[in-house]
Amino acid sequence: MGKVFLVGAGPGDPDLITVKGLKAIQQADIILYDRLVNKKLLSHASPKAKFMYCGKDPHRHSLPQEDTNKLLVNFAKKGQTITRLKGGDPFIFGRGGEEAEILAEHQIPFEIVPGITSGIAAPAYAGIPVTHRDYSSSVAFVTGVINKNIDKDSYWKHLALGPETLCIYMGVKKLPEISELLIKHGRPIDTPVALVQLGTSENQKTVVGNLMNIVEVAKDIENPAMIVVGEVVKLREHISWFEAGQSQASLANLTYQ
């Protein structure tokens, strides 16, 4: 029996891979990787490793999730070491839990290797801490694309009156609706909002507004992008670092051995 590593590749900057995640890439016989994985990470694989793309974009799935599950099981039963490489963290909107369930069902050994999720990293690279003792003592990671069986009003009402910071994944297309529902259920219209497109990458772009005007401000922002709602967004004005050119000069020549 082989083994499967469910690995979080981080949010985009290849230097944000964990040491354990890098080791899983290096020892894999087969790497199944997703759309938002930085392809530079694949260069650390063994020359004998095989690669399979399992990406999903908002418009089409190159490989249905059920087929990905079958590949993991079949390769492992052939004695292969498989690294399932996912953008961000495998257990935060990454379907890692679903894949782990299948592996457990088939009694296949596996390990979970957490990664840095974009809900933390993209705001950080934009100069926005998701918590701060003067602004926010709570944060929620939520998705803009919710199950059709969930009542949208109840969902956003709970969030409007709950956590002080909202980090919203997969919400760009739903931004008008999200803003409207948060205002409807009690969030002040002047609540700061930021959208961080391609967070932690060299093409990162950030725009800032409030719940009332963010749809217009962010009209040119596309997926993948993280939406941050809350008073912590104000801190970007003071601690923005990455896009201001204070980039990783001291880390630019970092290489993996």
Automatic annotation (TrEMBL):
Origin: domain of life: Bacteria
Keywords of this entry: Methyltransferase, Porphyrin biosynthesis, S-adenosyl-L-methionine, Transferase
GO molecular function per UniProt: uroporphyrin-III C-methyltransferase activity
EC number: 2.1.1.107
Tetrapyrrole methylase domain mapped to chain residues: 3-212
Pfam family, one: TP_methylase
GO process terms (BP): methylation; siroheme biosynthetic process
InterPro entries linked: 4pyrrol_Mease (IPR000878), 4pyrrol_Methylase_sf (IPR035996), 4pyrrole_Mease_sub1 (IPR014777), 4pyrrole_Mease_sub2 (IPR014776), CobA/CysG_C (IPR006366), Siro_Cobalamin_biosynth (IPR050161), Uropor_MeTrfase_CS (IPR003043)
EC category: transferase
Similarity annotation: Belongs to the precorrin methyltransferase family.
Protein name: Uroporphyrinogen-III C-methyltransferase
The species this protein was found in: Staphylococcus equorum
